[in-house]
Amino acid sequence: MPSACRSEAPCGRLSSQCLKRHWRVYDGENSLKSIEAPESIRSRVSFDRFIVHPLVNESVNEHVARVAAQKLQDKVVGSEAKREKADKRGGKKRSDQPAPAEDKPVMTAQVTVIGKPELEYLCQLAREAIKAGNGVPEKIAKEIDDRTDEKELKKNLKERRGTAVSSTVDADWAHRDCSWLGSS
After folding, report:
1. Using CA atoms, how far apart are residues 25 and 32, in angstroms rounded to an integer?
2. End-to-end CA distance of the chain
3. Residue 71 confidence (pLDDT)
4. Which partner for 51 in 38, 69, 143, 171 could form a disulfide, CB atoms 3.0-4.6 Å apart?
5. What pLDDT, in 10s, does the model give residues 128-138?
6. Is 117 in contact with 163 (CB distance < 8 Å)?
7. Rounded to 10 degrees, what is the CA torsion of 70, 160, 158, 147?
């Protein structure tokens, strides 16, 4: 069976990626755009663009903003636990890790799909941690750890997700199994 339908004949299989793109770009009746749903953000640099830049615009030191954003990104995307486990096996301590460079954007290895309400919540968390940590990177990391128990963070992000249609429809479909379509 071909991977994509190229003929006029009906196709019994539809790529979930194609379907999701259609939902995002369709501009007709009953589209996401017609109900004025804000789109979710698909980017490798969402944390930089929606956390670091707003904080820098509020006169927060860029290095401090990047430390906070990187810490939050690690917690949300899950790379912090993986990095700590790898460092433990390699005999590294936290202090051995280089701090993020001031001019290097905070980015993920792959595209993340996250809604605007979730990013606004994370930016607020970073803002509060920076204020409580008096702008000291080590204190900020500790403040973020203290404020973001893994289960509580997931719960808070899910609550934000429910506040915008884009997050409940658009972003969730990016992670949903479309087995009902007959695709894997």
Report:
1. 8
2. 14
3. 92
4. 69
5. 999 999 989 99
6. yes
7. 50
